[in-house]
Amino acid sequence: MADSIKCPNCGSNIFFDIEKQKAICAYCLNEYSAEQLESFLNSIEKKKETPEKNRETLKKKREALFADGVKFTCNSCGAKLVTERHSVVTYCSYCGSPALISERLSEEFAPDYIIPFKINRTEALNLFTEWCDGGKWTPYDFVSDNTKAKITGIYVPFWLYDTDGVIDISAQGLDRDSSSKYFDLSRKIKLSWENIPVMASPNFNEELMKTIEPFDLENLSDFHPAYLQGFLAECWSEDATEMKGLASARIAKFMNEEFENTVTSKYERIRIDSDRSTWKHKNIHYGLFPVWYLHYEHKGKSYDFAINGQTGKVSGHYPISKTKRLLVFLALFAVTSLVARLIIGALLGGLF
Amino acid sequence: MHNTDLENKKVISNHPLGEKRYCTIITVLVVAVLVFSLTLFILMYFPTKKVVCVQDNYQVFREDKLEEMTIACEKLAKEKNINVVVTSAITHTYRDLASTDQAQKDLADAIYREKCGNPFIGDVSGICIVVDPSRTDSRVRLFAYGSATLGDSSEARRIMEESLRSDYAKQDYAQYTIDGIRQIRQTCSFHGKAEILIFVACFVFPLLFAAAVTRVAFAKKEYGAAPTSLEYRAARKTVERKDNPKTFIGGL
Q1: pLDDT in tens, B151-184
Q2: Which chain B residues contact residue A137 at CB under 8 A?
Q3: φ/ψ of residue A123, rounded to 5
Q4: Which residues of B touch A146 (CB under 8 A)?
Q5: Are residues B20 and B105 in the same domain?
Q6: Nearest to A319 by CA among A137, A144, A149, A148
Q7: How many whole angstroms separate alpha carbon B50 and alpha carbon B78?
Q8: Phi-psi category of A310—alpha, beta or left, where left has phi over 0 and alpha has psi -120 to 50?
Q9: Does the CB of A27 have a partner CB in chain B at under 8 Å?
Q10: pLDDT tens, residue by residue, B83-115
Q11: Res A298: pLDDT
């Protein structure tokens, strides 16, 4: 069943209002906090505190639930919906109601946390226009309303790793002040990080997603489906165990940064003699983070653009119009050629 | 039902930075500059009639030699595709040598401009020979103009000066000048280098410059930096930190 949260007052669809940070009924304009819609939350089966299912069972369950062509029934109009593989929220293509696929938000697929959208669509479009200089150098189509309409507010799934680590490094360093002084140095530092996000879906550009971080994790809320109303959302498609490698790569980078911070001011060069650093992922949580996302294809090339839906941080690449680039090239060529010719003319006492 | 596509195009084309308007303005500017450049370029290679002028206002040359000198100048002009002007001058009234030199140059420039047209626009490549018996040195000076300055103008200048010195006593300035012109015709070239230089400066360099600037300006930029450890760090405790000077000297 594809659910949508209905207004307890009039039964119309409700949508999450970014300015008010509340769910609002599109018909009777009643406002509801997430707590007031608790009854809906109860319909979603929580993650059971039983021992973890083995990966094989989980994988089979995922395959059944997220297979291509799995149909859901819209609870507003009864239409049969076929959704994207990893979508957990979509719209009914018949009645336009937000459609939450409860099964994909239940048990193992229920997020622990969510960061609600703070940047609304208008702000997102303004940030987009500002970012691409109003389309000064892009093809016409890139800044058209058709493309802007494709900028989608989507909750992207992230695994959040709490990790403890110990940097334990012995090295030799060449003193910055005296180039002939060498030091034996050792560093042992205990560190812990919280909520390091690692994207749990292959459908988004991972490097791009890293560059719109950080999210303000102080404002992490407990998950409630009311926040999803009016946006798209995806479920994780790569489990936390599979993503540990990426999490570890980030930790290794962080540890390297932390070690370098303790030596770069004093030493010019460092040679590591032994590195016994270790880390352990303590807790893993599952969260949905808000992103305004645009994927754009231009002449066979892909361009991605993303806005952090909470902080408004923007990142991405835009296509350059070949016509405009050619015009700039010709203008530069003509002006340079003209200037060169005038200079030569002046130097020779005549143009030729 | 709205025709969104059409409306979008209208909105964007009316916007000052809308692609269509933007392209139109730039296109007009580019075309204007290109047309101007092209005109100058065509003028550069447009075959023009070369000027030959021999004037003897100060009666320095023998009259019977003037025709021979004119023929020699015409041959030089035709073969080397340059203007050739020969003039006599008396500049001894100037008090010092520097101002006399300048007076000669001014005189040559004025006569050359008068005979060969505007020196800024048009094919002004050529030489002007000034014969000035009033001076104790540099009685014959050669001035080059336009792309002729990039040719063998120094060599031509040396030839003219030496041809006069070779038989100073006879004071037959016309004959010395004719000999000098003939020798220049045989040994000097006033083009070649100039054409290469102008081609490089006005075509190759701007082409490379424009390509390099366009490439750098429109290079695909990297995404911004990912957050550092500090963003997610909850706690940090230094357990051990040692920095002991090494007891031996050696490189890393």
Answers
A1: 777 888 888 877 776 655 567 888 888 888 998 8
A2: 218
A3: -65, -40
A4: 4-5, 8
A5: no
A6: A137
A7: 7
A8: alpha
A9: no
A10: 899 988 876 655 555 566 788 888 888 888 888
A11: 85
Residue A225, domain member (yes or no): no
Of B202, B232, B238, the CB nearest to A344: B202
Q: Tally A–B CB contacts below 8 A.
A: 230
Whether ipTM tops 0.90, in short, is no
pLDDT category of residue B44 using cuts at 50, 70 and 90: low
Residue A116 counted as domain residue: no
Q: Do the bridges between strand A314-316 and strand A301-308 make them parallel or antiparallel, or are there none, so unpaired? A: antiparallel
Paired tokens of B12:
């964007």
- A330 and A248 within one domain: no
Do B145 and B103 share a structural domain? yes
Arithmetic mean of pLDDT, A34-41: 66
- Burial of residue A8 (CB within 10 Å: 0-12, 13-18, 19+) is middle
Per DSSP, B201 falls in state: I
CA–CA dist B7, B222 (Å, integer): 34
CA distance A278 to A166: 5
Task: Give residue B73's pLDDT.
Answer: 92
Instruction: Verify whether the Cβ–Cβ distance B227 to A213 is below 8 Å.
Output: yes
> What is the pLDDT averaged over residues A143-161?
89
Q: Is the pLDDT of residue A250 over 50?
A: yes
> Cβ of A246 under 8 Å from any chain B Cβ?
no
Q: Do residue A346 and residue A271 come from a single domain?
A: no
Point out the residue among A258, A316, A324 whose CB comes nearest to the CB of B229.
A258
d(CA A205, CA A317): 11
Token pair for residue A72?
């859901």
Residue with tokens 């992922």: A281
- How many domains is chain B partitioned into structurally? 2
Q: Which pLDDT score, from 0 to 100, does residue A50 have? A: 44
pLDDT at A48 over 50: no
Does any domain span residue A121? no
Range of the domain at A343: 323-352
In a domain, A215, yes or no: yes
